[in-house]
Amino acid sequence: MESRGVRTRMASTYSRQSSKALARRRWARTGSIYVLLMLFSLFFMGPLVFAFLSSLKDNPTEWPPTLSSPQLSPVNWGAAYRLGKLGGGGGFFGAFAPGAVVPFGATYEVDETQNPEPPIVVVPRRVPGAGAGAVRLGPFAADEAEVSEVREVSRENVNGKIRVTYEWEIIHTGELTYDRLPMDIEVPLYQKFVSATLAPNRLERLGRVQSWNNVTSGIIPYVFYNYHRVFRENYSRTTGKSLFLLWIRNSFLLSGIRVATTLIIASMAGYALARLDFLGRNALFFLTLFSMMIPGQVTFISNYLVLRDGIFGLSKLFGVDTLINTWPGYIISTMVNGSAVFIMKQFFESLPRDLEESARIDGASTFQTYFRIMLPLAQPSLGALAILTFQGTWNEFFWPLMILTSPADKYTLTIGLLNFRSTYAVAFDWGPMLAGTIISALPIIVLFIVFQSYFVEGISFTGIKG
Fold first, then answer.
1. Is 280 left (phi over 0), alpha (psi -120 to 50) or beta?
2. pLDDT cut 90: percent of the chain above it
3. One-character DSSP codes across 33-72
């Protein structure tokens, strides 16, 4: 009896140890899979993250590249907030308002053998940037800004170096409010810049000149300087509105209309091809498949000519000579495609026919069966189709470039970003171009994150899988 009890305890102990070892192997396998997935995500998302961090820099093409910048420092966030309020604006969006007194300070370092000199502080007449901002004629904050006397407030010896701190104020002496207060500080070459109330945007002339784009910017224009420029420097010559906002609105509007027309037409056509018996159904389905096999580039010229002539001249009956350079022309030419119809047909064929037969027994018409029974069941497929359609329309480039030619107020975001090449690239000003690209990618990223469950479920039920 005693030996049997020992064997039982040994078997129980071995069983527990085996269970623990199996659990450890399972957790190790799960952990290794998660680590592998994280490495893959870093590999694919790394360039996007690096592009976003570079878009915050004043010089995104600096070499060697780094992930840090003054815009990412919380110390500078607090300084930008305080200076924005002292300038007469808010802490998030600053200004330089009448009566404002903006204190500022900077610290320099020189050898013990050198005599430090007070810096020369200037408020320059600087335009906001390249492109439309470069043709700004005024007014400038320099016209009503006065720099007080530069005072030495402290001097100390640090590791054999003399470190001197200076302070001054910039006083608004006029009656206009300015959104920008640039500043330049110049010191002798032997005098090394150490720190300032707000980190400078640039060090020029071998470090002799420290330059600020906007001392009283507030947090948002300081941290997101290039993003702020994208919205402020590109404006319509006719309406004065922000072109970048108009481009975003146009892209959302056209993408939303295309999603709506695609879902309505594709779902109705897919249901008809999957469930209704009518003459020529198979021929129409083969024609749909054939349209999917033809590259879009093959039909560009013919579609362009059709829109140019007003849909074979029929548009002239309504007083329109051509549909080129009009939103209706773009919408009509992109209402639906064969792939969307095919996806919906495959989905409806995967649903059991018993549902329709039960509806017909209850006296439901074909449209009632489609609208009240089949369409609600198609939500996963419609969700996936909506995501794919929105993504395709948002990122579409060549066809809007052919159809929407002028004015710039009609452009989509992708076409508007093309204009940045002539606006900023010629001046090697890559910051706004990078910021605009990041903004254009955000809606697609958010769309997939929020609706990824619909996307995966819809794709799994479309019937495309083998």
1. left
2. 36
3. HHHHHHHHHHHHHHHHHHHHHHHTSS-TT-SS--S--GGG
Domain boundaries, given as residue ranges, for the chain? 71-223, 243-460
User: Residue 426's pLDDT is what?
Assistant: 72
Q: How many residues does the chain have?
A: 466
C-alpha to C-alpha distances, 303 to 39, 292, 311, 313, nearest whole angstrom = 45, 16, 9, 13
For the whole model, what pTM was predicted?
0.82
- Among positive and negative, which fits the CA dihedral 52, 56, 62, 63? negative
Q: Could you please report the per-residue DSSP string of 383-403?
A: HHHHHHHHHHHHH--HHHHHH
Paired with 109 in beta bridges are 163, 192
Q: Extract the tokens encoding 174.
A: 């006029």
Distance from CA of residue 40 to its chain's centroid?
Answer: 22
Residue range 243-460 forms a domain whose CATH class is mainly alpha
* pLDDT score for 325: 87
Distance between alpha carbon 404 and the CA centroid of its chain, in Å? 22
3-state helix, strand, coil in the chain (%, to 5): 55, 10, 30
DSSP string for residues in 411-428? --HHHHHHHHHHHTGGGT
